[in-house]
C-alpha cells in the first residue's frame, strides 16, 4: 500500500514523500517532488493565445499528462498547465513562451491535404543534423540526442518532438492498401488525428487501379452511387424529411454529396468491414422507404418502355439501366438489347421538332 504525504520543511516548504507499507515494514521512498516544482502562486489567465494556439487552463489534477514542449510530467496538484482547444497540445504554463510550433489546426484549415509520398526521406545531412521541428542537434548514434524518423514526413526529430507514437499513414493506405500503424512525430500525429475524418482523398485520381484489387472499394462505391440516386426522392418527400432519413449519414456528409471523395477513416472502416455493414443497413432502410413504405416515392418509379412488363423500376435497382440523357429507367437486358434510341428521348425530340414550325408561324 502506498500513501502520498507532504512533509513540512523550513520556511513553509514541503517535499512529496511516498510511504510504503509492505510486509509490516515501513519504507519511505522519497520522490523528488521538491517544492521548487510548484509554480509561483499567481493568477494565471483561463485562456491564452499563442502562435494561433488557443490554450485553455486545465482544472484537472491528474498526474498522468506529459508536457508536449519539455517532455516532463505535468504534476496537476502543484503545477498550472494548459491544453490547446484546437490541436490538444498540452504544456506547463512555464513552457508556453518556449513554444515555436504553430497550432496544427491552422494547417488543417488552410491546407487540408496529405503527404502522399511514402516516407519521403531527405536525409539527416539535408537537415543539418538537427531536429526538423525544434532544431536541436541530433544523430543516429544518439549523440547528443537520438534521431527518430517520422514515417509520415520522412524527416528526423529529437526525442522531445517524437515520442514513438504510432498512426496509420495515408500514403501507405493509398498506394499499398496497408494499415499497419507507423511511428510518427508528435506534430504529425496531431495533424493526422485532425484530418482523419476529412474527405480529401479522390481515389480515382490518386490511384484508380486500387479499385481493380480491392473488392470492398467497388462495393462501397456502388452503395454510394445508389444513395445519391435515392437523395432526390428524400428531398422532395415530406415523410422522409420529417423522419430525417438523410441524417443517418450525418457523420459522413460527403456520402450524400459525391461518390468519389473518401476520408482516411472511411478507408480504415472499409478495410475492417465496418463501413460495409453500416452502409448496407442504411441503403436497405432508404430503399425500403422508397419502394415499400412511401406511396409518394413509389409514384415516382418507372415502367420499362421497351418491354412494358414487370414491376415498377427505380434507378438504384441492381437490374436496371438509366438513360444518360433523360434519366429514364429500363430493364438492363432490354436497354442493351434495344438497338434504337431511348423511347423517351425520341418523344422529346419529336415534340421539339413539332414546336419549331409553330414558332416560325407566330
UniProtKB/TrEMBL annotation:
Domain spans labelled Phorbol-ester/DAG-type: 52-103
Keywords for the protein's UniProt record, in alphabetical order: Metal-binding, Repeat, Zinc, Zinc-finger
SUPFAM superfamilies in alphabetical order: Cysteine-rich domain (SSF57889), Multiheme cytochromes (SSF48695)
Native organism taxonomy: Eukaryota, Metazoa, Chordata, Craniata, Vertebrata
UniProt cross-references to PANTHER family, sorted A to Z: DIFFERENTIALLY EXPRESSED IN FDCP 8 HOMOLOG, PLECKSTRIN HOMOLOGY DOMAIN CONTAINING PROTEIN
Gene that produces this protein: def8
Highest taxon of the lineage: Eukaryota
Pfam families: C1_1 (PF00130), RH_dom (PF13901)
Task performed by this protein: Positively regulates lysosome peripheral distribution and ruffled border formation in osteoclasts. Involved in bone resorption.
Keyword Metal-binding attached: yes
Tagged with keyword Zinc-finger: yes
Cross-referenced Gene3D superfamilies: 3.30.60.20
One example GO MF annotation: zinc ion binding
Name of the featured protein: Differentially expressed in FDCP 8 homolog isoform X2
Family listed: Belongs to the DEF8 family.
InterPro entries: C1-like_sf, DEF8, DEF8_C1, Multihaem_cyt_sf, PKC_DAG/PE, RH_dom
Organism: Notothenia coriiceps (black rockcod)
Amino acid at each position: 500500500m502506498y500513501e502520498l504525504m507532504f512533509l513540512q520543511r523550513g520556511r513553509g516548504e514541503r517535499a512529496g514523500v511516498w510511504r510504503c507499507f509492505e510486509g509490516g515494514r515501513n519504507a519511505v521512498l522519497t520522490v523528488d517532488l521538491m517544492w521548487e516544482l510548484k509554480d509561483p502562486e499567481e493568477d494565471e489567465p483561463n485562456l491564452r493565445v499563442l502562435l494561433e494556439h488557443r490554450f485553455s487552463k486545465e482544472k484537472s489534477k491528474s498526474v498522468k499528462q506529459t508536457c508536449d514542449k519539455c517532455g516532463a510530467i505535468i504534476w496537476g496538484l502543484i503545477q498550472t498547465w494548459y491544453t490547446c482547444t484546437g490541436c490538444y497540445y498540452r504544456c506547463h504554463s512555464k513552457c508556453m513562451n518556449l513554444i515555436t510550433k504553430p497550432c496544427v489546426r491552422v494547417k488543417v484549415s488552410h491546407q487540408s491535404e496529405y503527404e502522399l509520398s511514402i516516407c519521403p526521406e531527405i536525409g539527416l545531412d539535408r537537415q543539418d543534423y538537427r531536429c526538423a521541428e525544434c532544431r536541436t542537434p541530433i544523430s543516429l548514434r544518439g549523440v547528443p540526442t537520438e534521431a527518430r524518423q517520422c514515417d509520415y514526413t520522412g524527416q528526423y526529430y529529437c526525442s522531445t518532438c517524437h515520442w514513438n507514437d504510432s498512426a496509420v499513414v495515408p500514403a501507405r493506405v493509398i498506394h499499398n492498401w496497408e494499415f499497419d500503424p507507423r511511428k510518427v512525430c508528435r506534430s504529425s500525429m496531431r495533424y493526422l488525428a485532425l484530418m482523419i475524418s476529412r474527405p480529401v482523398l479522390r481515389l480515382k485520381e490518386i490511384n484508380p487501379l486500387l479499385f481493380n484489387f480491392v473488392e470492398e472499394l467497388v462495393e462501397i462505391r456502388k452503395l454510394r452511387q445508389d444513395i445519391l440516386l435515392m437523395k432526390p426522392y428524400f428531398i422532395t418527400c415530406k415523410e422522409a424529411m420529417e423522419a430525417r432519413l438523410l441524417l443517418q449519414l450525418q457523420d459522413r456528409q460527403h456520402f450524400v454529396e459525391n461518390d468519389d471523395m473518401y476520408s482516411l477513416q472511411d478507408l480504415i472502416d472499409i478495410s475492417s468491414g465496418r463501413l460495409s455493414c453500416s452502409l448496407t443497413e442504411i441503403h436497405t432502410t432508404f430503399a425500403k422507404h422508397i419502394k415499400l413504405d412511401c406511396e409518394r416515392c413509389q409514384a415516382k418509379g418507372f415502367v420499362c418502355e421497351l418491354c412494358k412488363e414487370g414491376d415498377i423500376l427505380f434507378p438504384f435497382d441492381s437490374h436496371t439501366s438509366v438513360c444518360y440523357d433523360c434519366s429514364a429507367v429500363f430493364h438492363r437486358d432490354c436497354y442493351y438489347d434495344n438497338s434504337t434510341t431511348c423511347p423517351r428521348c425520341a418523344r422529346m425530340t419529336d415534340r421539339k421538332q413539332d414546336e419549331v414550325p409553330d414558332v416560325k408561324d407566330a
